[in-house]
Each structure stands twice: as C-alpha cells, then as structure tokens.
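Memo to structure team: turn this sequence into structure tokens by end of day. - J.P.
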Amino acid sequence: MSGYNVAIVGATGAVGARMIKMVEQTSLPVNSVKLLASSRSAGKQLKFNGKDLTVEETVPESFEGIDLALFSAGGSVSKKFAPEAVKRGAVVVDNTSAFRMDPKVPLVVPEVNEDALYQHHGIIANPNCSTIQMVVALEPIRKAFGLKRVIVSTYQAVSGAGNRALKELRDETQAYLDGKEMEAHILPVSGDKKHYPIAFNALPQIDVFEEDGYTHEEWKMIHETKKIMCGGDMDSKDIKVTATCVRIPVPVSHSESVYFEVEDPKATVKGIQDALAVAPGVVLQDDPDNQVYPQAHNAEGSRDTFVGRIRPDQETSQAFQMWDVSDNMLKGAAWNSVQIAEHLDKLGLLHL
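Reply from structure team:
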C-alpha cells in the first residue's frame, strides 16, 4: 500500500467540500479516498483530483480498511460513528463539538499544542473555529511574554452557521435592497424560539444561552482556550478568558478583537510584532500609517491567521490589543483537521 486510506464524513457539506480540497493538497501520502454522508446524499458524484467519486451512506462498515477518518457531519453523527471507525482501526479527526470537552480526547491546534497528539486514543477533536484563530495568534505571545488574561469580542461570518444560513443572508440582502420584508428562519440559532435577520444587522447570539447569560459559543471559546493552552485543563486558572460572540453579515472569515495581558513587564508592541512575524501559521499585517490591517475579504481562501492593529492599552500596564482574521472554513475547520492528520503522520501516530 502506497499511502493512507481516507474517509471524509459529511463530504457534501460546506466544510466537507473544503476537506476534499485540503486532502487533494495535503503532504500526506494518500492511497484512496472514500466520501461519506447521510442516506439523502448517497449516490451524489463529487470530484477528487479530477475524478468522479460516488458519495456513500455512512454505516459502521464504511470504515473497514480506513486509516484516517475526517468527520464534519454534526455532533450526533460523530458520536455514533467515530467509535465505530476507531473500532475498525481508523484514527478519527473530528470537526464537531462531540468530543472537544472529553478529558480523554486531545483538542488540538498544531501550531499550539502538537504534543497533545501523543495522548490520543483514536479520536482527536478539532476546536471551534473562533478559538482556533485566536490561540494561533496568542501562542507566540504567550511563549515570548507569558499570558495572564484574554478578553475577546468576535465578529463571526455567516458560513459558520452552514449553507442554509448563507442562503438566508443572500435572500435577506436581496429583499432589503428590493424594499421587501426580510424573512428570518435560521439565525441566530435554528432551534431557538425567535429568529432575526442577519442582513445589515449584528446578532449578539451564537448558539443557545447558558444559565449564566453567556452563549454556548462563548462558553466554548473560554474553556477550549484553556484546554488547548493550559495542558488539557478546561477549567485552568492560569489564564483568565472571557468572550462575547457576535454574528455579522459577512459570508466567510471570522474577525476578532482581542485584549490580552502578559506577564513580562518588558513586553512592547515591537516585541509582540517580532514574535508574530516568525510564528507558524501567522501573517502579520500591521502598518496603520498605510492602512494595512487584516480584513475578512482578504483572508478568505487562505490557511493562515492574519494579525494586526497591535497596540498597548492606555489604561492598563502589560496589556495590549490586536485584531485577528482567518477563514473559518479552512483554518477554522477543514485545514486544521487535515493539518492535525499531517502532524499525526510526522509524529508516527498514524499507522499504515
């Protein structure tokens, strides 16, 4: 066998389509690719490296002979089929929330905590998209100057809510421009009681509200950041984190305003810029004199996280602010998943 046999679960979805492209471009040796989805999508034809592949229904037997399974079909699908894949010898990289907070499952961003891969027992979780880009930007700063506190406000793209939400954005935008009433059926949360237009609007709700007033998206950012950056401890007190997550009418790429406090009193804007300029997965775009800063439109289609607008907080010592942007469908989902697989291979943790 010349390479790995790979299965992509949720191949017909928005992230699944990008997973296919990332596997086409991967440095992993790939022997074969199997595309899996629900029974509704079975029989569809999708391209892989220019060849037509037929989408198959996901069943436990789908994973016979599979070495690597990339999941992005919803948490319930992952909970049902990921253990079946592992039982049949596959290593699973899961892009849902199903296993992220499981203490036995590593939650991995390769630029930040690659070593956590050694702890896997067949399943590795891919973090939330908004968490991924933030920790990629923060990790070089943490290494250079230490990190005490993070306060993040997100400006998240509609694609994070799926293809139906993107269509709703387009339909609402057209209705608004035509002077017609906008109809909302999905956002902010498809299963919640009320729905509001996203076109020409900002919705300070992503996912459902918890009892403490935070949304579950905010809860995820807080605890995922701790688990990734604090050795697997989702409740660590080593870094204080809080978040406000907002959906805005942008199709692709999340933007974030990040306030952070460091431990080193000698930290400077120049020092932070220097640390970011050489960090893997980071592109520094920070030239305010020439209006150079990260933008969602420019980040779309890139695997990198773009960082700029780094400046000191004028009221608090050892505190700074920055702006980061990344394609939520690539680095925030499909690319981070395939990147995890590449690092598993590099470390000898994907066995042929």
